[in-house]
Amino acid sequence: MGWCIDMAEAPAAPLARLAIGVTGHRRAHPALALTGEAVAAQLELLLSGIAAQVDSQAATLGEIAPIRLHTLLADGVDQVAAASAVARGWDLVVPLPFGQTLNQVINSHPASLADAEALLAGKIPPDAACAARAAVIAQWYGKSHLFELADHDELLSGQLLASLADPQDKGLAALLSANTSANAAMAGRVMIEQSDFLIAVWDGKSSTLAGGTGHTIASALDRGCPVVRIDPAAPQEWHILHAPESLAAMAPSEDREAALAELVRIALRPGEGGALRAGAEALAAEEWHPHSSRLWTAYRRIEALFGGDPRPFRSLISTYEPPEAVAHGSGAAILASMTALPGGDPTLPARIEREVMRPAAWSDGISARLSDAYRGGMITSFILSAMAIVCGISYEPFASIDRKWIFASGEFLLLAAILVIIWRGSKERWHKRWFETRRVAEYLRHGPISLALGVARPPARWPRGDDTGWPEYYARHALRGIGLPEVRVTKEYLRAAAGTLLDTHVTSQRDYHFAKARRLRTVHHRLDRLSGRLFQLAIISVSTYLSTAALSAAGLLGAEALHDVAKYASYLGVIFPTFGAALAGMRYFGDFERFSAISEVTAAKLDAVHQRLVLLLSAPDHALSYAQVSELAHAADDIVLSEIENWQAVFGGKHITVPV
Questions:
Q1: Average pLDDT for the chain
Q2: CA torsion, ordered 579, 581, 586, 591, to nearest 10 deg
């Protein structure tokens, strides 16, 4: 283990960042014909207000990353917002519904087959107006960070050319419209997932056309993403929508400015006293240890002894991987697969290693040691409690009353040791710190796969801790810092990402949970069986005494023999149930059966995703789509986060306390 070093450097904390999406009608839409300038002015006012709100949070949060604006870059509202973002120095990120070339062709609105063929060939189209529109789009490409959904470009290019070649064929036109709308809807979904809230210019007339502004708004609200809606008929009367039901009753907000400020505050989260900043500082301040402690291995020893470990008495000292070693250690395979993605973002692996994997390794090492301290401390307390009782009564069969003080002293020391463990665990917040750091580690552990696919969990759908939310915000802003990769998502890219990244990750997690379920189920049953056997031995001990007493009463056994039997039978009658109860307490505290069931369900769900991936990867290229692969990435992410929530629900109330 050449990477084992005594000190590791805490990774830099992620910067808070606001990300917004903008969507709206195209320039030619009738709703903008008379109020286009007023809409642009109102949009500029909103963006200025948002920028001011972000600046006002710096006192609480410290340095804040530049605002990131997502838009599909269609002509009209999208480009107006993009121009404002670029002028302000914001990051402009564009999830294109198509590859660059096809997107330029479609959004240049070619009126003839010749125009479309020229643009697809990278040439200037004959029509001057079409050429001007194409030039504008090309200029925007140079100012944007592009995530291109190009997996259907070949099919759509053919349909576009066929439709232009035969403009009278309504079927071709309808098919092309349906397919391009589906791609626009998928790009809109990507934008929604990457944004804290949406700004939308919409006339309110229809929300059913896939890929349209109304449909994007409805999709955002379904995913818990608030929408700041500007009505082009009355731009100054903008209001905020929070739920799908808002579409049926779009009442103006009473205090819109305050509501908008609240959206920014919630996204950046200074309301918890600077939770992201305070949590990040606390995580960085944790003391790094290269190894686990020999003092707190009791919990893992129980798992080894009762879980079927072939070497249950082996050393259980763990070596923690320092963040600096991740690139050549646990993260090497993922980074290599990511680097090998055809047409992948060349900067993505290094950024993920630095901004995601290193914080994950740091959090994992800290959490693992705290887990040992908390869970090992509680298991040790159960053992010490049983030993204290045994020590306290051992004078009866083995010593006279005048030597009881020796055994009482031992009992006192054992009980004092329990109180010291409880005091130290409470003072150092083992339970709380373990929960917080483990959440960060698990969220970030699964992040690289989603990042490579441009998949993100919408802010409203992150889990919420019972008493603190900083781990979720830490992980979300760490992943937010990476954002969308600058890639052209082709069939080759999808096949490689789905196979070497997503499926490899899913199967490794599935196998881990299957093995964990078997091990914990074995621990539960063996603890249960041994505890039951000890209570049976207690009954035998008491029965032995009662039988001896009956024989003595019948004159078949002398008083001295009864005294000897009573002395040892009573002693064993206390020892056996004491240790039986301790084992039962360990089983209850560890909740091995419930965790086994959680892992069993998680593994089964992950296996179902794996089977779906196998089917998808066996399909021909034309049947492979970003929509399918991203849906499976979301499914895997949902399973992982569900397991984390279940784990928190079980251990959340098990604070370090008296072992009863």
A1: 90
A2: 150
Query: What pTM was computed for the model?
Result: 0.90
Q: Is residue 284 part of a domain?
A: no
Residues 233, 360 within the same domain: no
Question: How many Å is the Cα radius of gyration of the chain?
Answer: 32
Sign of CA dihedral 89, 95, 98, 103: negative
- Closest alpha carbon to 468 in 646, 224, 648, 598: 648
**pLDDT tens profile 229-254:** 999 989 998 999 988 888 877 666 66
Would you say residue 1 has pLDDT above 60? no
Alpha-carbon distance of 112 to 129, in angstroms, equals 12
The residues that bridge with 64 in the sheet, in sequence order, are 16
Range of the domain at 581: 294-314+341-396+412-651
Q: Does 354 share its domain with 212?
A: no
- What's phi and psi for 64, nearest 5 deg? -120, 135
- CA distances 265 to 22, 65, 181, 274, 585, Å, are 19, 15, 34, 10, 45
Kindly state whether residues 208 and 132 are assigned to the same domain.
yes
Q: Are residues 246 and 363 in the same domain?
A: no
Which residue is it, tokens 């759908």? 461
- Nearest CA to 72 out of 208, 180, 179 is that of 180
Tokens representing 233? 């008929």
Tell me the CB-side half-sphere exposure of residue 325, using CA atoms within 13 A: 18
Q: Who wins on pLDDT, 187 or 205?
A: 187
Q: What is the pLDDT of residue 5?
A: 47
Which token pair is 445? 């552990």
Residues in the chain: 660
Domain count, the chain: 2
444 or 403, which is more confident: 444
Residue appearing with tokens 């035969």: 166
Over range 58-74, report the average pLDDT. Answer: 90
Helix (H, G, I), strand (E, B) or coil at 606: helix
Distance CA 21, CA 44 (A): 14
Mean pLDDT value across residues 71-77 = 93
Q: Give me the phi and psi of 69, to 5 degrees please.
A: -110, 125
Q: Which element (helix H / strand E) includes 14?
A: none
**Tens digits of residue pLDDT in 396-439:** 788 778 788 898 999 999 999 999 999 999 999 999 899 899 99
CA distance 356 to 443: 10
Q: Are residue 521 and residue 449 in the same domain, yes or no?
A: yes
| Max CA pair span of the chain | 123
Any domain includes 638? yes
- Convert the pLDDT of each residue in 633-642 to its tens digit: 999 999 988 8
Are 238 and 251 in contact, with CB atoms under 8 Å apart? no
Name the residue among 230, 269, 287, 207 with its Cα closest to residue 77.
230
| Side chain identity, residue 217 | I
Residues 608, 555, single domain; the answer is: yes
What number of other Cβ atoms are within 10 A of residue 248's Cβ? 7
Phi/psi at 225 (nearest 5 deg)?
A: -95, 115
Q: Which two tokens stand for residue 110?
A: 């070619």
Which helix (DSSP H) or strand (DSSP E) does residue 78 occupy?
helix 77-88
578, amino acid identity: T
Token pair recorded at residue 259 = 């509501």
Q: How far apart are CA 112 and CA 38, in angstroms?
A: 34
Beta carbons within 8 Å of 28's beta carbon, 6+ residues apart: 75, 76
Does one domain contain both 254 and 299? no
One domain, residues 102 and 247:
yes
657: pLDDT confidence band, cut at 50, 70 and 90? confident
